[in-house]
Amino acid sequence: MITSLDFSRDLELLKQYNADLIIGIDEVGRGAWAGPVCIGAFVLDMNNHSLLKGINDSKQVKKANREILSELLASNKHLVLTGELESINNLGIGRTITNLIFRAVEELNAYVNSINRKAVFIIDGQFKASFGDNSTKKIKADSTFYSVAAASILAKVFRDNLMNELHSSYNQYAFYKNKGYPTPEHLNALKVYGVSKIHRTSFKPISNQLMLLDENN
Fold first, then answer.
1. Which DSSP string corresponds to 53-115?
2. Which of 25, 44, 91, 127 could be 95's S-S partner, Cβ–Cβ 3.0 to 4.6 Å?
3. What is the number of helices (H) and of strands (E) in the chain?
4. How far does Cα 58 stand from its chain's mean position?
5. What share of the chain is helix, strand, coil (3-state, %, to 5)?
6. Would you place residue 214 in the very low, low, confident or very high pLDDT band (cuts 50, 70, 90)?
7. Domains of the chain, with CATH numbers?
8. Total-model pTM
């Protein structure tokens, strides 16, 4: 059974930055072979949000619980932004995610300023880029900060739903199960059916499949 996160780590960061809102940011879909990448951003106002049980890194939360929690979290201020294939293939997955985070920080800084509040951003992972003086980056923040875990759940459910929709057009790849991630079934489908329009051609396993296709033609 997973640990249900509380506000303790978020509260520590609020005190450190003398802020009254904490905004957690996390990405979903970095390692997938197909489909978009998404980031979630969740604005935690402890004065207007009741602690939800079961919040943790979205990968550790069962699907049914994720969907319930996502609906409850969605009533709070949040963003889910999508990085499309064109960006992933042209700029790379890292740059695409970084650009999405910049967009989220810019938009939510404007929102926070508009309501005369002070916020600190906590971003999951390591990035060379600086996202502002009111931001910090931490590895595994999605399993230690409530706000980041909430962002992770919102982004995960949103992206999973996108992949379910894409499955209807590309059902040979079983996206409804693997969500575009590497699995033996997904790899076998690539060998049998080739690369689809929604596969990430900048990723080595996919580009290798394209090279094999060219060699056989």
1. TT-S-GGGS-HHHHHHHHHHHTTSSEEEEEE-HHHHHHH-HHHHHHHHHHHHHHHHHHHHHHT
2. 91
3. 8, 5
4. 9
5. 50, 15, 35
6. very low
7. 8-166 (3.30.420.10), 171-216 (no CATH)
8. 0.94
**Could you tell me the two tokens for 187?**
């790899």
Task: Label residues 36-67 b or e (16+ Cβ within 10 Å = b).
Answer: bbbbbbbbbebeebeebebbbbbeebeeebbe
CB neighbour class for 179 (10 Å; exposed up to 12, middle 13-18, buried from 19): buried
The tokens describing 99, both together, are: 């650009």
**φ, ψ of residue 168 in degrees (nearest 5):** -65, -25
- 166-195 pLDDT, tens digit per residue, is 999 999 999 999 999 999 999 899 889 989
Mean pLDDT of the chain: 94
